[in-house]
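Hi U.,

Before I forget, here's the chain from the pilot set. I'm dumping it here mostly so it's searchable later in email.
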Amino acid sequence: GDKVYVEKVSSMMNTNNGVQNRYSGVVEPQESWEVKKDGEKVVKEIYVKEGDAVEAGTPLFAYDTQDIQDKIATAKLEMEGINNEISDYYNQIETLKSERAEVSEDDKFQYTTQIQTIQTTIKQAQYNKESKRVEIERLEESLNHAAVSSEISGTVKSISENGYDQYTGEELPFITVLATGDYRVKGTVNEQNIWALSPGTPVLLRS
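Structure:
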């Protein structure tokens, strides 16, 4: 009751006119989407399994955000400390200016040097403050992307929690989603048979 395919012996033995070429291949969607796991984060929960159908926007997995939240809290405390330092430096400058106005001309130079030194320190503190602000923004952005959702509608093809092929050692995407819709046949040729192919050549597909 199964369908079979019949081939002439002459075709198999290449005794007829022309050559019969065989190519192995696979049927796959026209589009696939691979999710790379952030190596600096820990995956807290995976919401899908292989074979699940997903829509664009469906949550696939989420990172553990506790470490990020701790870093944000620490960075904000450091930012507050920098602001306090800058405020103290400005108060020191005002005090030195008041004292400088009451000393002799010979002593004013020393006060001016101290003021300039503190002004330089303020600039360094302001630079540190800006760097800390950028760090906080980066951490908050990372926190906002703690949950990763599918960008396409399709089927979850594979989930690789260790991230590497156990046989080849090749790095693998964490999750691969195959799009629904159009499909294509992807085959392989080599230098011995590629000459037999040209654009427009009809081919026969067999399961």
